[in-house]
Design a protein that fits this description.
- It contains 11 helices and 16 strands.
- The chain is α/β, with parallel strands linked by helices.
- The protein has 2 domains: about 250 residues, Ribonuclease Z/Hydroxyacylglutathione hydrolase-like (Metallo-beta-lactamase, Chain A, 4-Layer Sandwich), CATH 3.60.15.10; about 35 residues, no CATH class.
- It has a 7-stranded mixed β-sheet with strand order 6-5-4-3-2-1-16. Strands 7-8-9-12-13-14-15 form a 7-stranded mixed β-sheet, with helices on one face.
- Strand 10 and strand 11 form a beta hairpin.
- The radius of gyration is 22 Å and the shape is globular.
- Bound molecules: zinc ion (2 copies).
- One zinc ion binds next to loops.
Length: about 300
C-alpha cells in the first residue's frame, strides 16, 4: 500500500506543483488504485507513472473547489481510450458533483464507453469496497469538504501448522478449510480454530483530508487515532494561524500540536501554497520531526503492514 501524491499545490499550480491529486495504491491488496481528488493536470502527471487508468475504478472527491475537480472530466474522457472500455467506475463526492459532471458531459457531447456511477455522500457515510471500509466525515471549509478514512479489515492470524501437526492433521486443503471456519472436528473431537491461529493481523488506516481548518472534536480524533498515515492540507507553513483560519485552511504546526496525542504513525502534508519558494520548502522540511513529510509532486510513501 502506497500513497502517491501527483498534485501537491494549493489553489493555483506552480511550475513544480500541480493542483491536488492523490493516489492510494492498493494494487498489492485489491489490484486497483483509489484516486482522491482530480486536479487539473492529473492525467498529465499520470503519464509519468506506471499507473494504468483502467485500474482506477474508484474516485473520491473531497470537495467541489476547482483545484480538486477540474481534472476529472478530462481524465474520465481519456480513460475511455486508455484501456478503460467496459470497466465500470464509481465516483464518490459531495452533493452537486453529479449535476456538474452530467452537465459538463452533456454540453461537450462526451459519451463514455464504460459505466460511471456517481454516489453523493454525506457526513457519516460508510463505503465498503472489497476488504476496505471508508468512513466519511465533514471537515471545516468554506464549502462542504470531506475526510475519507480508509481502513482495511482485520485479518485472521496465521495458522499454527506445528500445533495442527501435533494433533495429527497433515498439511493440505484442509488447512484453509480450518482457517475459514470457527471450529473443526478431528478424530471426534471439536476444536476451536482460534486456538490454532496467531495474533490477528490488524488492518491499516489511512486518513485523507480535503481542505479544512484544523478540526478538534472527539468524533474526529477517534477517527484519526493510531492511523498509519494521515494526509492533511498545509496551505500555510509559516505560523500564520490567523490567516489560515480566515481562509478556511490549515497551518502545519497548528495541526501537529492539536493532534499530538493521536499516535499517528506518519503525516504527509500537501496542498502547499505557491507563494513558498521550493528552496524555502526544502529548508523548512529539515525542521520537521522524522514522522512528518511535506509532499512534492510524485512524492511516494509506503504504508507498511502492521507488525
Ligand atoms: Zn484546494
Ligand atoms: Zn477548497
Amino acid at each position: 500500500m502506497y500513497i502517491n501524491i501527483l498534485g501537491s499545490a494549493a489553489g493555483l499550480p506552480s511550475k513544480k506543483r500541480h493542483t491536488q491529486a492523490i493516489i492510494l495504491d492498493m494494487v498489492d491488496e485489491l489490484n486497483e488504485y483509489f484516486l482522491i481528488d482530480v486536479g487539473e493536470a492529473f492525467q498529465h502527471r499520470l503519464l509519468n507513472t506506471s499507473i494504468k487508468p483502467s485500474k482506477i475504478n474508484h474516485i473520491f472527491i473531497t470537495h467541489l473547489h476547482g483545484d480538486h475537480i477540474y481534472g476529472l472530466p478530462g481524465f474520465l474522457s481519456s480513460r475511455a481510450h486508455q484501456g478503460g472500455e467496459g470497466k465500470p467506475l464509481k465516483i464518490y463526492g459531495p452533493k452537486g458533483l453529479s449535476e456538474w459532471l452530467t452537465t459538463t458531459f452533456q454540453v461537450s457531447e462526451t459519451i463514455l464507453n464504460y459505466p460511471v456511477e456517481i454516489v453523493e455522500i454525506e457526513d457519516g457515510s460508510f463505503i465498503s469496497i472489497k476488504d476496505v471500509t471508508i468512513e466519511v466525515k465533514t471537515l471545516d471549509h468554506n464549502i462542504e469538504s470531506f475526510l475519507y478514512v480508509f481502513k482495511e479489515n482485520d485479518q485472521k492470524g496465521a495458522l499454527n501448522v506445528l500445533k495442527l501437526k501435533e494433533i495429527g492433521i497433515r498439511p493440505g486443503p484442509i488447512y484453509s478449510e480450518i482457517k475459514n471456519s470457527d471450529t473443526f472436528v478431528h478424530d471426534g473431537v471439536i476444536y476451536d480454530t482460534n486456538d490454532f491461529l496467531g495474533p490477528v493481523i490488524k488492518g491499516r488506516k489511512v486518513c485523507i483530508h480535503g481542505d479544512t481548518r484544523p478540526l478538534q472534536s472527539e468524533v474526529y480524533f477517534d477517527l484519526l487515532k493510531d492511523a498509519d498515515c494521515v494526509v492533511h492540507e498545509a496551505t500555510f507553513l509559516d505560523h500564520e494561524y490567523e490567516k489560515a483560519y480566515s481562509y478556511y485552511h490549515s497551518e502545519i504546526h497548528d495541526v501537529l500540536s492539536i493532534q499530538k496525542d493521536l499516535r499517528v504513525k506518519h503525516y504527509i502534508f500537501t496542498h502547499i501554497s505557491n507563494r513558498y519558494e521550493e528552496e524555502f520548502i526544502s529548508n523548512f522540511i529539515k525542521t520537521l520531526p522524522s514522522n512528518v513529510s511535506v509532499a512534492h509532486d510524485y512524492f511516494k510513501y509506503e504504508i507498511a503492514r502492521k507488525k
